[in-house]
Amino acid sequence: MALLEVRDLSVVFRRKGEEPTIAVDGISFDVEPGQTVGLVGESGCGKSVTSLAIMGLLPSRGVDVSGSVSFEGTELLHLSQRRLDERRGRDLGMVFQDPLSSLNPVVPIGVQIAEVLQRHRELSRKQARSEAAELLNRVGIPDPARRLDEYPHQLSGGMRQRALIAIALACRPRLLIADEPTTALDVTIQAQILNLLTELVADTDTALIMITHDLGVVAGLCDEVNVMYGGRIVERAERHALFTAPRHPYTNGLLESIPRLDAPRGERLVPIRGSVVDNIPWADGCAFAPRCPNAIEPCWSVTPALVADDGRMLRCHNPVEVPVTAGEGVR
Amino acid sequence: MTDDVLVTVDDIKVHFPIKRGVLLDRTVGHVYAVDGVSLQVRRGETYGLVGESGCGKTTLGRALLRLVEPTGGSVVFDGTDVSTLKGEDLRRMRRRMQMVFQDPMSSLDPRQSVESLLVEGMRAHGLDKGKQATHQRLKELLAAVGLPESALRKYPHEFSGGQRQRIGIARALAVEPDLIVADEPVSALDVSVQAQVLNLLEELQDEFGLTYLVVAHDLAVVRHISDRIGVMYLGSLVEEAGSDELYERPMHPYTKALLSAIPVPDPEVEDTREQILLTGDLPSPANPPSGCRFHTRCPWRQPARCDTERPPLREVGSGHRVACHYAEEILAGTITPHEVEPELAQS
């Protein structure tokens, strides 16, 4: 049994007098213990909403969450608030994009970390404080004993993100969800944080769901990658397979449209035409069809299903051909 | 022709005073946002400025157009010293240098239609010659940036991010500038749309013979569109070279670290490459380190000289300038990197 099983998860936002917005549209995936799974896509593809739904962080009014999220056999979606509170922070940790707005500005860092420890591991205040210092040390914050008494605004962006990771990992969760953890940071700091995350999850055998728009981050980090478009998974593959031979035109389009540092210069980028629109209709045809260079007749009328295709999952009527020149071209 | 220099920046400085106190308004220090940068931009080329947040790249771009007043140094644009221009002369000069901003939503007036946004600059510079001609010009502009003619009567909120950025570019083009300073032109856009705007910038350059100064934090983006790149760290230029040269033979330790920190969407590359991880944070530009600004984080730091003597930007090869005392030794491998204890930035 997988650590986390997400089945047919849908999230619909309802507003009075407006058409409901389908943010996540029946997605399913598994996370095995110790595995790193990526959710990639552009803004509005539903990747963040997916993580909020798993953590039960969506408001209860005006939002319909359906499907199933099973964590070690426990259904999270129907858990009472109290039960959920016991699990979050202990078994499930989360790191957000903007560390300044997810830390309490008027509470010292040390107290914010100790809070988790006291609550879930029932440590005394004193024990929690020394454990908090230990945690800060582990996430690479110099002079941790002094930092405990500082407030979030006194730390730099990278340090804040480290503090947030320390909080998320305080109880050695089985699963950590990181939602764009490095997007707000500079590249040299991003490299530090990604390194730290990889080390920590490897040391503690924590499973990680990495949510990002940056394919570069995914390439070095994730065992398995889910590419999302319009609230659905359009392609899922092991990272090497995904990057050497992307099959979905959207995945391929994303890869061709980013300037690569190691690509020969002067090569023109191949953009994806158009832009992401809200509330993409999967009902009649493929949501990506209007932007797709490979679109054929059925794409406009028949909704493609996510089917297994040579070791990966693919939702496309007319996928990108596997390049014959690639190593295993004999198939 | 390509050696023809359009902009010469000489030892430009922008220091922002830090004020304290209500009545006396004392100046208690300065933020050294740009601290002595010299560079040249040639006609028709794209010069890329990269660096992390707080390195002064945006301020430098703005100081070039005198959108912020430089504290010292000079900017010579096509033979005219812009730093001494005043009033009407400065206004006229500004027609020839335009800016494209990072966030297209906040740089377009939400209450102006696209037509009014585009015409405003033309009118201010006397390029609005009769209804017919102006309309023709607007049509050309929209066609050039890939927007339909129907866009004229619409307002900024009716467009997507990528389209708004196109409007921002069209507005800059409207007054027929020679130089466009683009400050993070694609960082607010989704990746699939980024490529559209980058391609557009290249096409426009070919078509109108524009000169670009592109300011961005994303080295991959900058390398893609620039002919030459300047790398900034804490208010000064640490390295400058041709795009390919910089990527193939980076000499400054900071450039090396920056290049190695950028994730590449290729698992093979990611699994095998060697990362130079910098420890610690960027020091505060209000209190920059002595000597070489980078010495607090530099894995190649040598005793004595690095923390006392500020390395000048010196020529080390054709068109390759670097500000490091030991650039050659590092390149030759006679100096090896060592561990650095992270120091915390005190703000």
- What percent strand of chain B? 15-25%
Radius of gyration of chain A (Å): 21 Å
Alpha-beta content class of chain B? alpha/beta
Helicity level of chain A, as a percent range? 25-40%
- Put simply, the count of helices of chain A is 11
The quaternary organization reads as: heterodimer
Label the structural class of chain A. Answer: alpha/beta
Q: What is the mean pLDDT of chain A? A: 88
Strand and helix order of chain A? EEEHEEHEHHHHHEHEHEEHHEE
Provide the low-confidence segments of chain A as ranges: 326-331
What overall form of chain A do the CA principal axes indicate?
globular
Largest protein-protein interface:
A-B, 51 and 54 residues
How much is the radius of gyration of chain B in Å? 22 Å
Describe the strand arrangement of the main beta sheet of chain A, using strand numbers.
6-7-8-3-9-10-12-11
The biggest sheet of chain B amounts to: 8 strands, mixed
Report the average pLDDT across residues of chain B.
89
Task: Give the ordered list of helices and strands of chain B.
Answer: EEEHEEHEHHHEHEHEEHHHEEH
Uncertain regions spanning at least 5 consecutive residues of chain B: none
